[in-house]
């Protein structure tokens, strides 16, 4: 039996009548009951907002873990937000550009000359995933650390060493669009060098404090107990092989299967996705991003510039022929019958945070849950669709 809860924040009668709220709560309960085994989830949180400063609904189902003493997911429960926090890194770079500290057309040769193999790669190509630089989180070395040294705190330089072509791995580079967490570790290092402050301090000062994100946290290494005690347990349940794993019969990550990763160091993610937050703060931050409240208009335009995920080439917008695009730490896609929308699903080893911004309605739906399953088992998007349909029906 899953515990549930729902809260309403000044929602209008048309958007959040009692029947609609009950349907949203029932949708969370039903999704959790259906997916708990297949996705190894124990709880889910939702935040649904109807405008930048408008009404909102907050709903929860399940518990923070699978133990008999674990409490229900509720307001204040935290989740790792994974690559959703790549937008932090993009924001810092663009803010520094607006302040005259750097340009997104600067090369790594200017800022990080210690990596000569990538000296011609621009900051922009790091942020839009067209650099060709390999992904450290898909290497055997990274998997071995996760499995055998889960509490180890790594530096940004440690992570780069896993794919540095002068090192032992010497992985081949890619052309076009290629999703690589290494890009954002490098971008975070550039931001720190340009600003003269640590990436951690930049996030705290220029994002968390500046935008009143009271339930958002970022540490480059181990988090304090006050944060981890509020964090839902997170479960790894993904048997997929790593990208660089040849002739795979068993994933390098097999030793993580079924493990509760809440106590693991998140230092492996850092500027590529190391933040922790609740769904309300994710909504608050992403509304600031899309609303143009974070950076000046010039940088806002740069932030929204898309490349095709299929070709890696610039595109004006997604289309039915080319339906998926990536800008600077943000994604846009044609999502079936819903049309084109900005969205992101951030994942870590045991957590998922998914938001979709329905621009036409100025509606944002954010979901968080506590597992990483195989891609084919991940049905969190289905819950977005159900909630959207409920809201649309009530708006008629």
Mind explaining what this structure looks like?
By secondary structure, the chain is α+β, with helices and mostly antiparallel strands. It has twelve helices and 15 strands. The chain has helices at 18-39, 86-98, 108-111, 123-127, 140-148, 156-161, 181-195, 199-209, 225-228, 279-290, 297-304, 380-395, and strands at 4-9, 43-49, 56-62, 79-80, 216-217, 235-237, 276-277, 306-308, 314-315, 324-326, 331-334, 340-348, 351-358, 363-369, 371-373. A ten-stranded antiparallel β-sheet has the order 1-3-2-14-13-12-11-10-8-9, sandwiched between helices. Strands 4-7-5 form a three-stranded antiparallel β-sheet. A hairpin with a 5-residue loop joins β8 (306-308) and β9. The radius of gyration is 20 Å and the shape is globular. Residues 8-15 have low confidence and may be disordered.
Q: What's the SSE blueprint?
A:
Layout: E1 4-9, H1 18-39, E2 43-49, E3 56-62, E4 79-80, H2 86-98, H3 108-111, H4 123-127, H5 140-148, H6 156-161, H7 181-195, H8 199-209, E5 216-217, H9 225-228, E6 235-237, E7 276-277, H10 279-290, H11 297-304, E8 306-308, E9 314-315, E10 324-326, E11 331-334, E12 340-348, E13 351-358, E14 363-369, E15 371-373, H12 380-395
Parallel strand pairs: 6-15
Antiparallel strand pairs: 1-3, 2-3, 2-14, 4-7, 5-7, 8-9, 8-10, 10-11, 11-12, 12-13, 13-14
Summarize the structure.
This protein has 12 helices and 15 strands.
